[in-house]
Design a protein that fits this description.
It is a multi-pass membrane protein. Keywords: Cell membrane, Membrane, Transmembrane, Transmembrane helix. It comes from Geomobilimonas luticola. It is found in: Cell membrane. Pfam families: Polysacc_synt. The protein is mostly helical and 427 residues long. The protein has one domain. Helix content is 86%, strand content 0%. The protein contains 18 helices and no strands. Helix 7 runs antiparallel to helix 8. The longest helix is centred in the middle third of the chain and has 38 residues.
């Protein structure tokens, strides 16, 4: 019972910090949509989409390797392991930067992002991974207060700088991008410094640790690319079909739908350390209770999605204004996509625990290819609403495939509905 109480307490702290973290850019949204035309908001949308594809190459998911190895920190030289992960991160970032520099002109034209900001995207992507490592260690150490303070402070600085650049200095879309960039770099720097001061990192690379990190991260490249195809490439397709204006309108729906992921992500952050500990103990009764709670979680997620879909028009009108109400149809589909995304988080943890990332990468990549195909079919038929529908279908397929894979690598009593616990109590 004490473990459950601790889980709920940590989840509450993560939820509050995630809500505050989401509220800050959410407050920025109605300001930007009323100051910037959809075409300029579209540039912001394409920049953030570009960050999604950069993440497949600049970081190689090193933060995930750190989180998994934290459980075995007493058996290895963990600070040196973290330092080795940082060397992998920096190396992959320089390689990515070199490739982007060589193909800067065509990449800029395709992404609809100015060349200067395309290069900046590589830097921001690298700093995002540095922040994820800092946050991940706090998460695994069950320090939600520090996690939340860092996260909320970064968003507050991001918002403050963006408002100064956009409203006072009249920098347009560039002001928003400068706010994002400076805040990310500042907190990445402070995060690395805090890791060093706390003794969590030694900048002395270890070849075996680097090989282990690569063996964890490289199979996840298709996984990250699949996530890009599922959740980011839609903006590229919309831009190609309808232009930056429609991409900007669609981005409003995306940002509003992300509100659903706030609670799911917060619960998952508190859930992961507890889940890994429970799986190590291999207790059947606890596993059964976990499964029962997960089914309830699924029902709640779908209920919230249905409510958002019903109120989508009014949500867009109130938050973003009349010129963005065309995003309502997309928001309906994206809401269910977010629900399936939260359900996916509840089952994918078992795969990371089992360290079977290679088949997970294939599941995500296949789902992403399916989503990409659906985009090209549904967007011409339904406009940006088709992108929302494609997202919902793709996320649902990914959830089902991931759930099946999780059951294969880490079996759980998903269909027992109380039989294991009743039998154990009878004995």
């Amino acid at each position: 019972m004490s473990n459950v109480r601790a889980l709920l307490q940590n989840a509450a702290v993560y939820s509050v910090s995630n809500i505050l973290n989401a509220v800050i850019p959410f407050l920025l949204l109605p300001i930007l949509t009323r100051v910037l035309p959809p075409s300029e908001y579209g540039v912001i949308a394409m920049f953030t989409a570009t960050l999604g594809i950069m993440g497949a190459f600049t970081g190689l998911s090193v933060h995930g390797a750190v989180n998994v190895r934290y459980v075995d920190r007493d058996k290895i030289d963990f600070p040196r392991y973290v330092g080795s992960c940082l060397w992998v991160l920096l190396s992959s970032t320089f390689i990515t930067l070199a490739v982007v520099t060589v193909f800067l002109a065509p990449l800029s034209k395709f992404a609809a992002v100015p060349p200067f900001w395309l290069l900046i995207a590589v830097l921001v992507s690298c700093c995002n991974f540095l922040n994820q490592i800092r946050l991940g260690i706090w998460m695994m150490a069950s320090r939600p207060a520090l996690y939340g303070a860092f996260q909320v402070a970064q968003s507050a600085v991001n918002m403050g700088l963006s408002l100064v650049f956009v409203l006072i200095m009249h920098q347009g879309y560039a002001g928003r991008l400068w706010g994002l960039t400076l805040a990310t770099v500042l907190f990445a720097t402070s995060g690395v410094v805090s890791l060093a001061k706390a003794g969590w990192v030694r900048f002395c690379p270890h070849l075996e640790y680097m090989r282990e990190t690569l063996s964890f991260g490289l199979p996840l490249v298709p996984h990250v690319l699949g996530i890009f195809l599922m959740g980011v490439v839609d903006r590229f397709v919309i831009n190609q079909k309808f232009g930056l204006g429609q991409a900007g309108i669609y981005m409003v729906a995306v940002q509003l739908s992300l509100g659903m992921s706030v609670v799911a992500d917060a619960f998952n952050k508190a859930f992961v350390p507890w889940l890994y500990s429970l799986l190590n103990n291999d207790d059947l009764v606890s596993k059964h209770r976990l499964v029962r709670g997960t089914w309830i979680y699924f029902l709640i997620a779908l209920g919230i999605a249905g409510t958002v879909a019903l109120l989508s028009h009014w949500i867009i009108y109130i938050v973003a204004g009349a010129k963005y109400v065309g995003a309502a149809g997309a928001l309906s589909g994206l809401a269910f996509g977010q629900a399936f995304g939260g359900m996916y988080l509840m089952v994918t943890n078992y795969i990371f625990y089992a360290r079977k990332t290679r088949p997970l990468a294939m599941v995500t990549f296949v789902s992403g290819v399916l989503g990409f195909g659906l985009l090209w079919v549904l967007i011409p038929l339904l406009g940006i609403a088709g992108a929302g529908l494609a997202n919902a279908i793709t996320m649902f397929v990914r959830f089902l495939l991931t759930w099946a894979l999780a059951q294969r690598v880490c079996p759980m009593p998903w269909l027992s509905f109380g039989k294991i616990e009743v039998k154990t109590q009878a004995i």
